[in-house]
Specification:
The protein is of the alpha+beta class. It folds into 3 domains: 2-172, Jelly Rolls, CATH 2.60.120; 179-398, Rhopdopsin 7-helix transmembrane proteins, CATH 1.20.1070; 485-622, Heat Shock Protein 90, CATH 3.30.565.10. The protein is built from 14 helices and 17 strands. The chain has a 6-stranded antiparallel β-sheet with strand order 3-2-5-10-7-8, with no helix packed on it. α13 links the parallel β13 (511-516) and β14. The protein is rod-shaped and about 160 Å long.
């Protein structure tokens, strides 16, 4: 905030303070000096007019200078005086009447070989004069070290009351330093925003999924490069010697121009054109040549190399900018026209800065591009935001379309599920009808067929036929009961059999002994397994009623110890009678074989033992 306030105040102060200062009789402008100049070890002494731009008078050469200025002071009362320098050095030492007032950097002489890469000519200097040093007639001595290509020299010196000069100093400081800081931060913010967009945003279209937008990359590179370039104003002591630091600064300038031009090509849709490919190759070649050109331009001394290098960039940049502006005038693209406006303002400013920096005297002129180029940052920011907004709109449209498609698919799936559910229910009904028909065929039908054969043989008595028909009726009732058998509930299954068959047991003189305890449900027995188990029990009871000639029928059902491999419950069921018995080894009955098959189908173990007076059918479930 302090930098912004200084910048805004500085603009007004620079415009408004200089004229009143000229009218102040107590302010002295020192523009004549005796100069002792040393270039390539050769000293010369001459009278010079200030400002004295070193690069303008000694192109491509470094050196040292001592400037002597005499002036008279008329201090009023105890009002302190000061000196104001628009820029000074690269390195400098200021003495008044033999007293050292201020110095920055190293100024080598014949007795020392110290070197210094610092550049202290980037900001204005304000030096307060101690009252004891100021006299009526004064001699000001200023020594400077000037590095080739570094905008060094000796300015007009302003001497006068502190209060009158400080406002001028603060205005210039705010403009040059505060303004540079503000625009550096602004470019960094825009660059970070563009870089984040490039890293996080990809093309949502399926055919270009994962592809990043190069426009964001060009914007980020351009803004980071420009932030570094104008931020160099704030760096008085660079980390590299001046020759190498010059390479870095000029290379960054080339990268900025290249990224900016590629940004324009991306907006205009020229990236796939042959001319655009040649432009990219030319820019790449210039950037690759940049380090060598900048180094030899500074150390050669051949400053024209750097001028030619920047001219080559201009020959690529200016025609492309003109084509871009003409296309913007024909097309109603907001993004296009925003960048075109920035080009219309900045290309002339850039040409102006190129002239004063490379042809005219850069010491006495102020570069304007560092301020006007903020329009590029604004344009880049606006376009990046617009691209981001449009990308979000496309993504939102795609998500809406996808949501509609998903909704349609869900509706289709719902209909398909309903159809499948209806088909499954129909198949279940068909299976149930098939089961009932099969049970009736195997049970009821078999018994009725047996009764018919008995009647047809003429040798059976009515009691036998009646017994067969009663079995058929019981089988029919049990088939109907099977529709509602609870899965896994063996106790309910046995109770239902007792309910259906106990009247027949009593009619036949069979005493039923019921030794069934409540049993845990067996989860592995589903509805189909329960029907199989019901048939096994009924077949065992039917054999007792038809063949055993027994007087007692005992039914036992008890839980047993759990299996070692599983914690699932197991049940043992025993059906015992005291009838005549039979030979289990020699007897091959269809009913017994069917019982064995059904027991295997439900995973049960069936054991039958028989001797006169006792027959046991044992079923182990679990």
């Amino acid at each position: 905030m302090q930098g912004i306030r200084w910048f805004l105040k500085g603009v007004l102060l620079v415009l408004c303070s200089a004229a009143p200062l000229l009218a102040q009789s107590s302010v002295v402008a020192l523009d004549q000096a005796r100069a002792e100049l040393t270039v390539n070890g050769v000293p010369t002494t001459t009278q010079v007019s200030l400002p004295y731009g070193w690069d303008y008078h000694h192109k491509g050469q470094s050196g040292f200078g001592r400037f002597t200025l005499d002036f008279a002071a008329q201090p009023s009362g105890h009002e302190p005086w000061a000196l104001y320098f628009y820029r000074l050095g690269n390195a400098y030492a200021v003495r008044l009447n033999g007293t050292l007032l201020e110095h920055n950097g190293v100024i080598p002489d014949a007795d020392t070989s110290d070197t210094d890469s610092g550049d202290y000519a980037k900001v204005p200097r304000f030096i307060r004069i101690p009252p004891s040093v100021l006299m009526d007639h004064n001699r000001l001595e200023v020594e400077i070290r000037s590095d080739s290509g570094r905008r060094s020299g000796m300015p007009v010196v302003w001497a006068g009351p502190t209060a009158e000069l400080e406002s001028l100093y603060r205005g210039e400081f705010a403009l040059r330093v505060g303004g540079s800081a503000v625009f550096t931060v602004f470019s960094l913010v825009v660059g970070v925003f563009a870089a984040v967009l490039w890293l996080t945003q990809t093309d949502p279209r399926p055919e270009r999924r994962g592809v990043r937008d190069n426009l964001y990359l060009y914007a980020a590179v351009a803004e980071f490069s420009w932030a570094f370039f104008i931020g160099d104003t704030l760096i008085e002591r660079p980390p590299l010697p001046w020759a190498w630091w010059s390479v870095v600064v000029n290379l960054v300038l080339g990268v900025w121009l290249s990224a900016l031009l590629l940004f324009c090509h991306s907006i205009a849709g020229w990236e796939r054109h042959t001319a655009s490919r040649w432009v990219r190759r030319t820019l790449a070649a210039l950037i690759l040549a940049g380090p060598a050109v900048a180094y030899y331009a500074i150390t050669g001394p051949t400053p024209w190399l750097l001028t030619a290098w920047q001219t080559a960039f201009a020959l690529v940049f200016v025609p492309s900018s003109a084509l871009f502006v003409m296309q913007a005038l024909r097309e109603a693209s907001t993004m296009h026209r925003v960048v075109a406006l920035a080009l219309v303002v900045n290309v002339p400013v850039g040409i102006h800065d190129f002239y004063i920096m490379r042809i005219s005297d850069p010491f006495v002129n102020q570069a304007l591009l560092r301020y006007s180029a903020a329009l590029f940052g604004l344009a880049l920011g606006v376009i990046a935001i617009d691209r981001f907004r449009n990308a979000n709109l496309r993504v939102r449209d795609m998500l809406d379309a996808l949501a509609v498609r998903v909704e349609d698919k869900e509706l289709e799936l719902s209909k398909s599920y309903r159809r499948m559910e209806l088909i499954a229910r129909e198949q279940e009904r068909i299976r149930e009808r098939s089961r009932i028909l099969r049970d009736m065929h195997d049970g009821v039908g078999s018994h009725i067929s047996s009764a018919i054969r008995q009647l047809q043989s003429g040798q059976s008595n009515p009691d036998e036929v009646l017994l067969t028909l009663q079995d058929s009726l019981d089988q029919l009732k049990l088939s109907i009961d099977a529709l509602n058998l609870p899965p896994g509930d063996v106790t309910a299954l046995l109770a239902n059999l007792r309910y259906r068959l106990e009247p027949r047991f009593r009619a036949m003189g069979l005493t039923l002994e019921w030794a069934v305890v409540p049993l845990a449900d067996l989860p592995q027995l589903d509805a189909g397994a329960m029907r199989q188990l019901q048939f096994i029990f009924f077949e065992a009871f039917s054999n007792v009623m038809q063949h055993a000639h027994a007087s007692v029928l005992r039914i036992e059902a008890t839980p047993t110890l759990a299996s070692r491999r599983s914690d699932a419950p197991t049940v043992r069921i025993r059906i015992c009678d005291n009838g005549c018995g039979f030979d289990t080894a020699s007897t091959q009955r269809k009913g017994l074989n069917s019982m064995q098959e059904r027991a295997c189908a439900v995973g049960a173990q069936l054991h039958i033992s028989s001797r006169p007076g006792e027959t046991v059918v044992e079923i182990l479930l679990g």
